[in-house]
Design brief:
The protein is 2% helix and 44% strand. By secondary structure, it is mainly beta. The longest helix has 5 residues.
C-alpha cells in the first residue's frame, strides 16, 4: 500500500522492473483470452520513454486489467487522476478501447463492478492526456484498474504516466431550478460555488432520461467564472428534465458532475400569428436584439420573421426594460414592440403595444427602445414581438406586406427587484479608444450576486472598484444584475459610451537635408491625410 501523491511513469529503474515486465506491486489480471498488458521500450512515433502497451490478439478480443498497487484514500476527500493514453491511428476500421475504474479489491473480478472513472470507447490518436476528479466514498485502500477491451486485430493500445493526488477542483452544491423561473421552453438553474471556486467557470448538462453524464460526456453549455446561474433555452413544453453541473478548473481539468436537479417545463402557450414578408425584402432586416440576458445576432430571416421565443430574459414587475434593436436595411424603420400580457395568444389587448419609435437609415443603426412592465403584472413567461417596417407607422403585429422585419422573444415576469443605479449613465463625447471616467454602482451592491455587462468587450473593472469603458464607437452597454437565491430577481441599467471618430493623423515628410540657404531653391513638403498635398518650405537665413 502507498499514499498520494502516487506517480507511475513506467521507468524500469525507478519502478523496479525490466521490459516487458510490470512495475513492482502492480499486476496484469486477464479476464479473457486476449493478450496481456506489457511494458514496452520507447516508441519514438508515439511515446518517447518506456510505457505500457496492449498489442492486439489475432482472433480474441481484449479483456485484461492493468492494476496499480493499493493507494490509501480518505472518505469525502476529492482526488485527481491523470494519465496519458493512445491507440493505433491508421485505418478507419482499427479502434482501441479502454475503461478506468477504482475499487477496494485489486482483481479483475473486483474491479469489474467498481466505480467507473472514465471510458474511452474509441481511441484513434496518441498521445492524449486525461484528467478525472473524484471523491472517495469511504476511507480505505483503493486499486485503480485500466481495462483494455479492444476487439481482435485492432492495433496497439498505449498507457503511460499515471498520477494520483489530492484535488482542488471541487463539486458545486445546491443545484436547483426554482419553480418561478421555469417556463414552457426554458429554465433558470442556480448552484453554490465550491471553495475554492473554479477559475474556468462551470459546465452543465441536461437530458430527459435521468441517465447521469460520465466524465467524457460533452456539456450542454458553459458559463464563465464567477457566475452561478444560467438559463437553459430551447426546451420542450410539459417535459421533465434532469440537469447536472461541474467545475471547469483548467484546460482538460473538469470536476465531478454534481448531484442532479429535476424540473418540469410548463404547458406550451397559445399559437401566435406569423407576419409575412411579400415582394423583395430590404437587406439584412433586424441584425441584433439585446434585451437583458438576450443578445441575439441574426440576419435576413425567411419571410421576414424569426421565431426566437426560445430566448428568454427575466423582467421584473414595474421595471423599465431597455431593448437595443439593430437594423441593417439602410432605411428608416418604424418600430413597434408588443407583449401578450394576458397570455391569450394575440397582441390586440389594451396596453400590449408597449413601444413605438423610428430608427435612422444608417447601416447599421441601433434603436434604443424600452418598455415598462406593469407593477401588478402576473408572474410567468409572456411572448414579446418586435416589428419594424419601412413607410410606417403601422399597428398590425400580424402584418403581411413589403419591406418589414419581425422577431419574437419570451420575457419572464418576476417580482420587482431591488434598485440598480449607476453614478452616471452617459458621458461627454470624447475620442474613441480612450478610457471613460470610472462608473460606479451607487445602489447597494450586496442586493445582487452576479453583475454582467453586455457587450462584455470594452469593459474593465468590478462592482466594488467601478467600471471603465473603452471602445472605438458610440456603444450602449447594459448591466444585468441577478440574484442566485431568494426571489431570483434581476435588474438592468444602461451606460452609453459616446465616441467621436478618431482623426486620421497628418504626416509631413521632407527629403533628406531640410536646410536651405537664402536665395536657394525651395524644398518640397508632402502632407498626407486622406489626400496628399504639396507645399514648399521657404529658404531660411543663415
Amino acid at each position: 500500500m502507498t499514499t498520494v501523491p502516487y506517480y507511475l511513469p513506467f521507468d524500469p529503474v525507478g519502478d523496479g522492473f525490466t521490459v516487458p515486465g510490470l512495475p513492482v506491486c502492480t499486476v496484469n489480471d486477464n479476464a479473457g483470452t486476449g493478450n496481456d498488458w506489457q511494458s514496452s521500450p520507447p516508441d519514438f512515433g508515439a511515446f518517447f520513454d518506456e510505457h505500457l502497451t496492449y498489442s492486439f490478439h489475432p482472433t480474441n478480443d481484449a479483456n485484461t486489467w492493468f492494476i496499480t498497487k493499493g493507494i490509501a484514500l480518505t472518505a469525502g476527500q476529492t482526488y485527481r487522476i491523470q494519465y496519458i493514453y493512445g491507440g493505433s491511428s491508421e485505418f478507419t476500421f482499427i479502434t482501441n478501447r479502454m475503461e478506468v475504474r477504482y475499487g477496494t479489491t485489486g482483481t479483475a473480478t473486483g474491479l469489474a463492478g467498481a466505480i467507473q472513472l472514465d471510458d474511452h470507447p474509441e481511441i484513434k490518436s496518441v498521445p492524449e492526456t486525461n484528467v478525472v476528479n473524484f471523491t472517495a466514498p469511504t476511507t480505505d485502500t483503493y486499486y485503480f484498474g485500466f481495462r483494455a477491451y479492444s476487439e481482435a486485430t485492432n492495433g496497439t493500445l498505449y498507457l503511460d504516466d499515471i498520477f494520483i493526488d489530492v484535488s482542488n477542483c471541487l463539486v458545486p452544491t445546491g443545484l436547483n431550478a426554482p419553480v418561478a423561473l421555469v417556463s414552457f421552453n426554458n429554465a433558470t438553474i442556480t448552484w453554490t460555488a465550491p471553495t475554492p471556486s473554479p477559475t474556468g467557470g462551470y459546465a452543465y448538462y441536461y437530458n430527459t432520461t435521468g441517465i447521469p453524464p460520465t466524465n467524457s460526456t460533452p456539456p450542454s453549455g458553459t458559463v464563465p467564472a464567477g457566475t452561478t446561474l444560467t438559463v437553459i433555452p430551447g426546451l420542450s413544453p410539459s417535459t421533465t428534465y434532469y440537469v447536472w453541473v461541474r467545475s471547469i478548473c483548467g484546460f482538460g481539468d473538469l470536476g465531478e458532475w454534481s448531484s442532479s436537479a429535476t424540473f418540469t417545463t410548463l404547458v406550451a402557450p397559445p399559437v401566435y400569428c406569423t407576419p409575412v414578408q411579400t415582394g423583395t425584402p430590404d437587406p439584412n432586416g433586424i441584425t441584433n436584439v439585446t434585451m437583458g440576458s438576450i443578445n441575439n445576432t441574426t440576419g435576413l430571416e425567411p419571410g421576414g420573421y424569426g421565431d426566437y421565443s426560445g430566448f428568454t430574459t427575466n423582467v421584473p414587475q414595474g421595471a423599465t426594460i431597455p431593448v437595443a434593436i439593430t437594423y441593417g436595411t439602410g432605411f428608416t424603420y418604424d418600430t413597434n414592440i408588443w407583449v401578450d400580457w394576458n397570455n391569450d395568444g394575440d397582441f390586440a389587448d389594451a396596453g400590449e403595444l408597449v413601444y413605438t419609435g423610428v430608427s435612422t437609415n444608417a447601416v447599421p443603426t441601433t434603436l434604443n427602445a424600452s418598455f415598462t412592465v406593469p407593477i401588478a403584472q402576473p408572474l410567468g413567461p409572456r411572448r414579446l414581438r418586435i416589428g419594424g417596417i419601412d413607410f410606417g407607422p403601422f399597428s398590425d403585429p400580424c402584418r403581411t406586406g413589403t419591406w418589414q422585419a419581425f422577431e419574437d422573444y419570451t420575457v419572464n415576469v418576476i417580482v420587482a427587484p431591488p434598485a440598480l443605479t449607476l453614478s452616471q449613465t452617459t458621458m461627454p463625447a470624447q475620442c474613441g479608444l480612450t478610457d471613460s471616467p470610472t462608473v460606479f454602482i451607487t445602489s447597494t451592491i450586496s442586493d445582487f450576486d452576479v453583475y454582467t455587462w453586455t457587450p462584455s468587450t470594452g469593459v474593465t473593472g468590478d462592482p466594488v472598484s467601478g467600471y471603465v469603458f473603452n471602445t472605438s464607437a458610440t456603444t450602449t452597454f447594459i448591466l444585468t444584475a441577478s440574484q442566485t437565491s431568494g426571489a431570483f430577481s434581476t435588474n438592468t441599467v444602461n451606460f452609453t459610451y459616446t465616441a467621436n471618430e478618431t482623426p486620421t493623423p497628418i504626416t509631413i515628410s521632407t527629403p533628406d537635408g531640410t536646410d536651405s540657404c537664402i536665395n536657394g531653391p525651395a524644398i518640397e513638403l508632402n502632407v498626407c491625410r486622406r489626400y496628399c498635398f504639396q507645399y514648399y518650405r521657404l529658404p531660411r537665413r543663415f
